[in-house]
Amino acid sequence: MEDEQKSQLIKQGAEAKVYITTLFTKPQLLSPITGQSSVPVKTSSRSDKVLLKYRFPKTYRHPTLSTQLTASRTTAEARALIRCARVGVNTPKIVCVDEEQGVLGLEIVDGYSVRELLGGGSEGEDEYEEEEEVQPSNQIASEELILLTNEEGLVIMRKIGIQLARMHQAHIIHGDLTTSNMMVRRQKGAASIQSAEVVLIDFGLSLNSTSAEDKAVDLYVLQRAFASTHPDSEHLFDEILKAYQDIIENKPVLYDPKVKAEKGTVAGPTHWKEIKRKLDDVRLRGRKRSMVG
């Protein structure tokens, strides 16, 4: 399926390695939900290049347990991506899945992370393990990195809020929301940032939950990431929450008309108030934790 000599390691974390490589077979999308195969997937403009996320074995685990956990987590991540796509959340397309080997093939998102575009520093606090970036995005993206202006940054924040609201309306919790896990994909030839897409990536810690507190924790993790990576960014996170609130209160999930809608999606002022109340509670607990160490 791939040429190992042409594989390029771009990131390595505690759970997985991420490569750019070349596929020599024509991939098909296999749905972990239905088990049915669809038409061959067009990955991106770089049709011969794909991103491979490889969950490597853990030597400290029993081999059987390691295999089961790897398969379960790989399948869960693929399912989360499919559910997101159904409700209009921008995520990388799935190219291939090999749950037994812990391999997830994804399209390459041609762009830069929000962290890079905002000129942010490195991420990483005691409670979060930072991934090592082996290859910077300027070796992957087709265009030169140009930092966002303040006005452009606010536009992107609103787009982030919309994506997060749609994701939470489908009861998908990302689990690791940082500005490194959000890519900005510009339309080719477009001068304005208005036409750009925010693409959410890395659903390795995602889960399904209807809990308002789980959604609030998801948002709080992102708020902490902004505080540690982007100083004086309170106004940026506030813009995310405004767009998030607007979608949750007023707009239903946008479904692909060709796909059967997911059950249990929610919207409305009551649900937003519950999420906001839980977010305030989580913030308070976070401040108390910081005070006592």
UniProtKB/TrEMBL annotation:
<dbReference type="Pfam" id="PF06293">
    <property type="entry name" value="Kdo"/>
</dbReference>
<dbReference type="InterPro" id="IPR008266">
    <property type="entry name" value="Tyr_kinase_AS"/>
</dbReference>
<keyword id="KW-0547">Nucleotide-binding</keyword>
<dbReference type="GO" id="GO:0004674">
    <property type="term" value="F:protein serine/threonine kinase activity"/>
</dbReference>
<protein>
    <recommendedName>
        <fullName>non-specific serine/threonine protein kinase</fullName>
        <ecNumber>2.7.11.1</ecNumber>
    </recommendedName>
</protein>
<keyword id="KW-0067">ATP-binding</keyword>
<dbReference type="InterPro" id="IPR000719">
    <property type="entry name" value="Prot_kinase_dom"/>
</dbReference>
<keyword id="KW-0418">Kinase</keyword>
<dbReference type="GO" id="GO:0000408">
    <property type="term" value="C:EKC/KEOPS complex"/>
</dbReference>
<dbReference type="GO" id="GO:0008033">
    <property type="term" value="P:tRNA processing"/>
</dbReference>
<dbReference type="InterPro" id="IPR022495">
    <property type="entry name" value="Bud32"/>
</dbReference>
<dbReference type="GO" id="GO:0005634">
    <property type="term" value="C:nucleus"/>
</dbReference>
<feature type="domain" description="Protein kinase">
    <location>
        <begin position="4"/>
        <end position="293"/>
    </location>
</feature>
<dbReference type="GO" id="GO:0005524">
    <property type="term" value="F:ATP binding"/>
</dbReference>
<keyword id="KW-0808">Transferase</keyword>
<keyword id="KW-0819">tRNA processing</keyword>
<keyword id="KW-0723">Serine/threonine-protein kinase</keyword>
<dbReference type="InterPro" id="IPR011009">
    <property type="entry name" value="Kinase-like_dom_sf"/>
</dbReference>
<comment type="similarity">
    <text>Belongs to the protein kinase superfamily. BUD32 family.</text>
</comment>
<dbReference type="GO" id="GO:0005829">
    <property type="term" value="C:cytosol"/>
</dbReference>
<dbReference type="GO" id="GO:0070525">
    <property type="term" value="P:tRNA threonylcarbamoyladenosine metabolic process"/>
</dbReference>
